[in-house]
């Protein structure tokens, strides 16, 4: 044990449920003693923390596909941590693990649900993104619901985000014409230069988004991978083709709304185009995770996928990183380095 | 030729495109000479005319999955007609045919697209309804998109209409618990007594439709067969189960709207339940028509399906019958007898 047992541990708890957009005051940094690994347990030191838009839903006191966070308890997300003490023969000091862990600088855990990660060939943080839930979401959402065919037009909202930027690249691998919608000129540039998108639109500066979509999708939209919802999606739905598939992966534009937002009904568009709109939750496809991770790893090694991160440093900045997701502060995956 | 060639023929044309709800003044009865069957043609006398909600869409000057009607040209729908003169060896005088024909008392046609119908075992008008597009829509929409499993809860809007009343009965055959939403106490009674629905709700007299749906669907909604759209559908969507399927077959509540109607976004419900919402157009499934018709015929013969019609008499009343669809004047299939 090289951790001083009377050293204080930093922990971030949910202090208040956000009303609308989360603010710093909804979170609280508390201090408690660094814990000790008991029989069969390991002691972990947090290295990298993933923040993701879906966490906003867990901050509401409302049942959803994941249970809500509890008040005054630590929040959780995907974390890469280093084993610094171990009473479990499967883990040795210095090993790196990845799993759904608490927002604590130090924590004890059993090995359950933890993945030992290899750092030889790949950035460590890739396991929080392209080789983690982000990559799985992008790949399985696109292939299982979007079912891309070569030559089809794929439109992605939130295209420069963690999931969107991977969806577009996989769309290109599969032979689609790929169009991204994002919220800054810099993101648009990134999509075209680094991620190989055919076209990209800055929805914040485009006066006529609907017209812009029409211009860059002269053959209509076959697949719409939707991360944002709201008005952007209304506009895209105007140009869907017969048998279009709409992957509803997220609705970041609506996560902070305190009442139900109104928009044009989608049903008439769906009927007139025999189109499909389906909600996607990655955990429904758990049986395909191993094969999909292998595929993603291969694409990454072959240089077919690029990976982009926005990294903030400092444990205390986890709330700031999370809040920034809703201000479009990230390009690619948002991560906090501890 | 037993038709007097200087006799006048009644024809109903689209005189004006309806703005909102169609009114009598949008249609015009004109007279023209009864035509003569040329080489290879047959002369038909209209016997029964089907009017259907989807025709409203064709009255707008807007491309959809069927082309718009032309102004001052006859409207069209599914019609049963009698062959009264024939220059085509496949048809003899007295034969009954069914096809997509014009709103004319007499018309010439080639045999193309016409089905010779057998009247031995079945009501003639069944070919406009349960053995026609209505039955095919109900059966294929439910099985191909709804994919019912025994024990699941199936909710149907517009349940007492032509399609809805067949969907419910097929749902019962397939072992579902079936709940109908309709617009009068008489329809509710009909659904439970004649069509074997487990529960039915009169949405017009129920103060709290959402609560009523919850009460009659204690295990939630697995399949929602939607003929009406709008607020009724918003309420049903509150109770969908994980992996629910929503068959968007029609949106009669919205067909007459002159601007795009707003409602709560469906995307959050679809994501949180991994649910599917898909537009259904029966013509996409044409390769399955023969087998499906055979199945429907068998169920009808076996007494497993009941059939209900609302019949108006008189060629001139076709517009009235059509307009009545949007006032909920029909129970089951709406037909005009000429």
Can you lay out the helices and strands and say which pair or pack?
Two copies of one chain form a homodimer.
Chain A: E1 8-14, E2 27-33, E3 42-50, H1 55-58, E4 76-86, E5 96-102, E6 106-109, E7 115-116, H2 133-146, E8 153-157, H3 162-173, E9 177-182, H4 185-193, E10 199-202, H5 209-216, E11 221-226, H6 230-237, E12 240-248, E13 262-264, H7 267-272, E14 276-279, H8 289-301, E15 309-313, H9 318-325, E16 333-337
Helix pairs in contact in A: 2-3, 2-8
How is this structure best described in words?
The structure is a homodimer of 338-residue chains. The model of chain A has no long low-confidence stretch (mean pLDDT 93). In chain A, 46% of the residues are buried. Chain A has two domains: 8-127 and 308-337, Alpha-Beta Complex (Quinone Oxidoreductase, Chain A, domain 1), CATH 3.90.180.10; 133-283, Rossmann fold (3-Layer(aba) Sandwich). The first copy, chain A, starts with 7 loop residues before the first strand and ends with a strand. The first copy, chain A, is built from nine helices and 16 strands. By secondary structure, chain A is of the alpha/beta class. Chain A is globular. In chain A, the strands form three sheets. In chain A, strands 3, 4, 5, 6, 7, 15 and 16 form a seven-stranded mixed β-sheet that branches. In chain A, helix 2 packs across helix 3 (162-173) and helix 2 (133-146) packs across helix 8 (289-301). Chains A and B meet through strand 13, helix 7 and strand 14 of A and strand 13, helix 7 and strand 14 of B. Strand 14 (276-279) of chain A pairs antiparallel with strand 14 (276-279) of chain B.
């Amino acid at each position: 044990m090289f951790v001083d047992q009377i050293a204080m541990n930093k922990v971030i708890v949910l202090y208040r449920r956000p009303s609308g957009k989360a603010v710093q005051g909804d979170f609280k940094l508390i201090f408690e003693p660094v814990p000790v690994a008991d029989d069969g347990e390991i002691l972990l030191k947090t290295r990298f923390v993933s923040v993701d838009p879906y966490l906003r839903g867990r901050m509401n006191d409302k049942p959803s596909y994941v249970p809500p966070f509890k008040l005054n308890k630590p929040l959780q997300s995907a974390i890469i941590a280093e084993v610094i003490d171990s009473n479990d023969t499967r883990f040795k000091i210095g090993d790196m693990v990845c799993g759904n862990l608490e927002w604590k600088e130090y924590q004890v855990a059993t090995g359950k649900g933890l993945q030992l990660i290899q750092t030889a060939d790949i950035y460590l943080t890739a396991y929080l993104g392209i080789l983690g839930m982000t990559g799985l979401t992008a790949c399985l959402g696109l292939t299982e619901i979007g079912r891309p065919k070569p030559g089809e037009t794929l439109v992605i909202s939130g295209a420069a985000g963690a999931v969107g930027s991977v969806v577009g690249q996989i769309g290109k691998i599969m032979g689609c014409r790929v169009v991204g919608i994002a919220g800054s000129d810099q993101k648009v540039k990134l999509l075209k230069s680094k991620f190989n998108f055919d076209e990209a639109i800055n929805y914040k500066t485009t006066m006529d988004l609907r017209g812009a979509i029409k211009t860059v999708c002269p053959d209509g939209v076959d697949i719409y991978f939707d991360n944002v919802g709201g008005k952007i999606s209304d506009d895209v739905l105007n140009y869907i083709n017969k048998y279009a598939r709409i992957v509803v992966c997220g609705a970041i534009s609506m996560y902070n709304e305190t009442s139900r937002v109104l928009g044009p009904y989608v049903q008439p568009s769906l009927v007139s185009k025999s189109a499909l709109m389906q909600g996607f939750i990655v955990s429904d496809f758990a049986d395909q995770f191993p094969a999909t991770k292998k595929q993603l790893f291969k694409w990454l090694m072959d240089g077919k996928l690029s990976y982009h991160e926005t990294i903030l440093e400092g444990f205390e900045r986890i709330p700031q990183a999370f809040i920034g997701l809703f201000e479009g502060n990230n390009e690619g995956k948002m991560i906090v380095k501890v």
